[in-house]
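Render this sequence as a predicted structure.
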Amino acid sequence: MFVAGNFISAMATIIDMVLGFYMWVIIARALVSWVNPDPYNPIVQFLYKVTEPVLYPIRVRMGAYSSGMDLSPMIVILLIIFLKQFLVSSLMGLAHRLR
C-alpha cells in the first residue's frame, strides 16, 4: 500500500504546485490589467489566454463591471486557496494513512 500512498502524495504535491503557479498567473493578470498593456505583447497574450477561460464564466455570473471593478480574479484566488487547503490536505492525509 505504500506505493499507492506515495503516488497520492506525489499527485497532491503536483496539484499544490500547479495551483500555486496558477494563482501567481492570476495575480500577474490582475496587475497587468491596472496598466494599459500592449495587447500584442507575448506575455500579455499568454496571461490572457491562460486566465480568460477561468475568469470569463465567473465574470458572466457576477455581472462584472456593474460595480466598476472586476472581482473575478479575487474569486478565483479564493477558490484556489480553498482547493489547496481542502483537496491537497485531504490527499496528503489519505497518502499518510496508506503508508
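Summary. The mean pLDDT is 91. DSSP finds three helices and no strands in the chain.
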